[in-house]
Design brief:
Low-confidence stretches: 1-12, 17-27, 116-127
CATH architecture of the largest domain: Orthogonal Bundle
Largest sheet: none
Distance between the termini: 37 Å
Mean pLDDT: 76
Structural class: mainly alpha
Radius of gyration: 21 Å
CATH topology of the largest domain: Rna Polymerase Sigma Factor, Chain: A
Helix content: 55-70%
Oligomer: single chain
Strand content: under 5%
Length: about 220
């Protein structure tokens, strides 16, 4: 039985103070064997896995969440999920990739919860739900995104706004505009490609995830 993730670690230190993932990775002489040991319920093997990857996962989560305590909690949840799903570990050929997907999904889930989005986005209301450290960044990034939306071709901009701001389905948009559902989909694909690229060119690589979530650009 595992009661608390960090009772299993060898270091006994908070995640944020543990050794870097790369420094410890050499201890995993045979990661496949280690995963098989974990699948069999070996808690010492799991402890090594946590000590190896926890610091990197915590740092990644903290980049987006910005709150150390919550980031540690999310990191705990990620490794608890791995433990509870340990029977599937021997079948994983790329564990770092698997861990990245779990981390990404858990972080997105937490951000969506914090943003409290209900299908449409309002810049002021959404910013009010964020931590103080993110509110100004969010408003600034929202302004950048809105400028990008204005650069879309008129019909594409209209389709995007109907979908993301008004919460309309592709089928309803097609009916109202007298175009096919496939055309609506093509407009959205091209709009999303452009806006993702626009955000990358005009912002850093971290905080824009908030906007990707709010406006469903992922």
């Amino acid at each position: 039985m595992i009661f608390f993730i960090f009772s299993l670690t060898t270091s006994g230190q908070p995640i944020s103070k543990r050794a870097n993932t790369l420094e410890l990775h050499g201890n995993l002489n045979n990661e496949k064997e280690l995963l098989c040991r974990i699948a069999a319920g070996d808690q010492r093997a799991f402890s090594l896995l946590v000590d190896t990857y926890a610091a990197g996962i915590y740092a990644h989560v903290l980049t987006y969440i910005k709150e150390p305590a919550l980031s540690e909690e999310i990191t705990q949840d990620i490794f608890l999920k791995i433990w509870y799903l340990r029977a599937s570990l021997p079948g994983i050929n790329n564990f770092p990739g698997y861990l990245h997907v779990i981390t990404r999904n858990r972080t997105i889930s937490e951000l969506r919860k914090a943003l409290g989005r209900q299908g449409t986005a309002d810049v002021t209301e959404t910013a009010d739900l964020l931590t103080p450290s993110l509110q100004l960044e969010y408003r600034q990034l929202s302004d950048i995104l809105l400028r990008g939306i204005e650069l879309l071709p008129p019909r594409r901009r209209q389709v995007f706004r109907m979908s993301r701001f008004e919460g309309m389905s592709y089928e309803r948009i097609a009916g109202e505009l007298g175009i096919s559902k496939g055309t609506v989909n093509e407009h959205m694909v091209q709009a999303l490609l452009f806006l993702r690229s626009y955000l990358k060119r005009h912002t850093d690589n971290a905080v824009p995830l908030l906007l990707l979530l709010v406006y469903e650009l992922l």
